[in-house]
């Protein structure tokens, strides 16, 4: 048979290869394979002793992957069994979940953070306020007597920062979040605004009331604003009894979460002095009334740097700022 190349445009099939062509192809393939093998051998021979050890360790680690996985599983099962046995025996377990079950019933007292000062703060201060709110939420969840926690007038820069950096906040439990103002959420006669400009001193907590903390980090730029707002709305106001228990040697600042935590500790201990000194560190210049104490320049500078505040405190009641 005569093969006509012009009738077949595809690749030449093997049946039309001559023996000489077949030999050439086989020889070429063999040379290519031998070349690859030589390259691999040369590559392995170029590995240093340290590299070979590293390679062996990696291979061993890969081989033992399933064994490690099984050991982790057994360890988790063992811990789970131990916790279960502790619960059946009535033993104490210090895990957060167990502690949360052992707390006393929540207090009916309401603590509200007024977030209506958003337009008065720089964005860096808004971020500080966000962190303070996170702290309030965290301590309230772990408190022995948690309060009814409210965020009011939430919006603007604060909400944008919360949405961007802490998307999980929308799943927070045991908190009421409102875009409305506090006086639109709770009846005015039930409200007490905490501000150190108030002439009224808080001696005890009324659990039927809702106490409002000003959510403002202003570095003392807006003096008396919370007191003025309370007066304009015609609601009750009061200051914490700091001057009855604490000596302040210089202007000091209490963050929103400091005020919040002081209230929580008082609910548990029913002792203002213990509440103040559980929360306020001595390095901030706070000492029990009657004891001498002098704040250093370094401490004053540190206080200014820590001015994540909603409340400013001085030794003179009329000059205090606790917003």
UniProtKB/TrEMBL annotation:
<keyword id="KW-0949">S-adenosyl-L-methionine</keyword>
<dbReference type="GO" id="GO:0052905">
    <property type="term" value="F:tRNA (guanosine(9)-N1)-methyltransferase activity"/>
</dbReference>
<feature type="compositionally biased region" description="Polar residues">
    <location>
        <begin position="1"/>
        <end position="20"/>
    </location>
</feature>
<feature type="compositionally biased region" description="Polar residues">
    <location>
        <begin position="36"/>
        <end position="45"/>
    </location>
</feature>
<dbReference type="InterPro" id="IPR038459">
    <property type="entry name" value="MT_TRM10-typ_sf"/>
</dbReference>
<dbReference type="InterPro" id="IPR007356">
    <property type="entry name" value="tRNA_m1G_MeTrfase_euk"/>
</dbReference>
<dbReference type="InterPro" id="IPR028564">
    <property type="entry name" value="MT_TRM10-typ"/>
</dbReference>
<dbReference type="InterPro" id="IPR016653">
    <property type="entry name" value="TRM10/TRM10A"/>
</dbReference>
<feature type="active site" description="Proton acceptor">
    <location>
        <position position="218"/>
    </location>
</feature>
<feature type="compositionally biased region" description="Polar residues">
    <location>
        <begin position="313"/>
        <end position="323"/>
    </location>
</feature>
<feature type="region of interest" description="Disordered">
    <location>
        <begin position="1"/>
        <end position="93"/>
    </location>
</feature>
<protein>
    <recommendedName>
        <fullName>tRNA methyltransferase 10 homolog A</fullName>
        <ecNumber>2.1.1.221</ecNumber>
    </recommendedName>
</protein>
<feature type="compositionally biased region" description="Basic and acidic residues">
    <location>
        <begin position="21"/>
        <end position="35"/>
    </location>
</feature>
<comment type="function">
    <text>S-adenosyl-L-methionine-dependent guanine N(1)-methyltransferase that catalyzes the formation of N(1)-methylguanine at position 9 (m1G9) in tRNAs. Probably not able to catalyze formation of N(1)-methyladenine at position 9 (m1A9) in tRNAs.</text>
</comment>
<dbReference type="GO" id="GO:0005829">
    <property type="term" value="C:cytosol"/>
</dbReference>
<dbReference type="GO" id="GO:0000049">
    <property type="term" value="F:tRNA binding"/>
</dbReference>
<keyword id="KW-0808">Transferase</keyword>
<feature type="compositionally biased region" description="Acidic residues">
    <location>
        <begin position="295"/>
        <end position="305"/>
    </location>
</feature>
<dbReference type="GO" id="GO:0002939">
    <property type="term" value="P:tRNA N1-guanine methylation"/>
</dbReference>
<feature type="domain" description="SAM-dependent MTase TRM10-type">
    <location>
        <begin position="95"/>
        <end position="287"/>
    </location>
</feature>
<feature type="region of interest" description="Disordered">
    <location>
        <begin position="288"/>
        <end position="323"/>
    </location>
</feature>
<feature type="compositionally biased region" description="Basic residues">
    <location>
        <begin position="49"/>
        <end position="58"/>
    </location>
</feature>
<feature type="compositionally biased region" description="Basic residues">
    <location>
        <begin position="68"/>
        <end position="78"/>
    </location>
</feature>
<keyword id="KW-0489">Methyltransferase</keyword>
<dbReference type="GO" id="GO:0005654">
    <property type="term" value="C:nucleoplasm"/>
</dbReference>
